[in-house]
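Extended Data, panel c. Modelled sequence:
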Amino acid sequence: MQFFKKYLLFLFIIGFSFSIHSQKNIKLNGLVVDENNEPIPYAAIGIPSKSLGTATTEEGTFLLFVSKNNLSDFLEVSSIGFETFKIKVQDFINLKEKKIVIKEAVMSLDEIVLSKKPKDYAKLAIKKLWKTTINDEHQLNILYRRFSVEEGKARFLVEHYINVLDKGPLEGKFLGVEIVAARKSADYRFVKKKLKGHPINVITRFSPLRNDFRLKDYNWKRKGDTSYDGEDVLIVEGRFKGNNRRFVRLYVGMDTYGVYRVETSILSALYVYKKDADGKLHLSYHNRTRNGKVFINSKQKAILRTDKEFVNESYKHEVFVLGVKKDSKTIKASEYKTFNEDIGDIKANYNASFWENFSLPPATKFYKKSVKELEAIYGVSLKDQFKAVNK
């Protein structure tokens, strides 16, 4: 009976993008580049009409699972500054080289005299979030990854596949988190900086779209022009009046005032948004890095063979939103919780079969480098670390 339950667990399809290798699922993997063959990072790729999609990695690669029912659907690729590309799923499968080339959008905004001040575009973008984003209760299916780095070397990895209950930016905080699957590497850190609560919530805490963001505290100016999905986009930047190094950069649609991308100096954070089947925006990809120092005692100095008073440490976070579920009847709010522990201390079930069959995004250069550093510490493969640590 126990075996049967485990078998059902990893055969069950969760959300829209979580798929396993079966006869009913087809793996689409490839590369998105521009006309100069340069990779396009963080492009939204998927089938919007079916709320199925993912984002390309920093290297422009992607992995997406579809079913036979999607063969006649259109695979769409959208990225800031480029024309939206569409191709039938079957036609993409037939390509000998799984490479998608997208064209740079021709812009003429530099010749346009703006009818509003840059600050006004930022103000309208915030004001119209109720219209441009999903603001009903919905579920985001997310792969969350955090590397802990000390003195420039990765020493600990935690990965969670989670469902996040949300009501959109007007709600502020996420309503709760459900951990579907989790795994972590061996913990090779010398110092262990603990941060309470699941770090997914930091997205809402520091996002300019989701907290008490006061535009009047910033000096706003036009930084450039681009496009997204056929809409002209204005890039506006606000510099904090009390500290000019602190900034918020918004990519605002000039027709809809939708926000397609946000960059902030706080945590060097990036937020990328894409449209769902109804044209409403939701988070597609996010990364951030928190840097800090942990002071060490004499015993730790002796172990590290250093005279330094502290250890440089950082957390690199990466978020891939793999699907959106909007049917409130199938979202079980009772499954969602809040967590007070550090993500590395949260107890969650480990299922090797789940991760072996899960459609992980392609490994980026940063991921490969970090894994190599983890494995080199004691010569233990990450796969063996998963087996030894996760019980």
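The chain has a mean pLDDT of 87. This feature is highlighted in the accompanying rendering.
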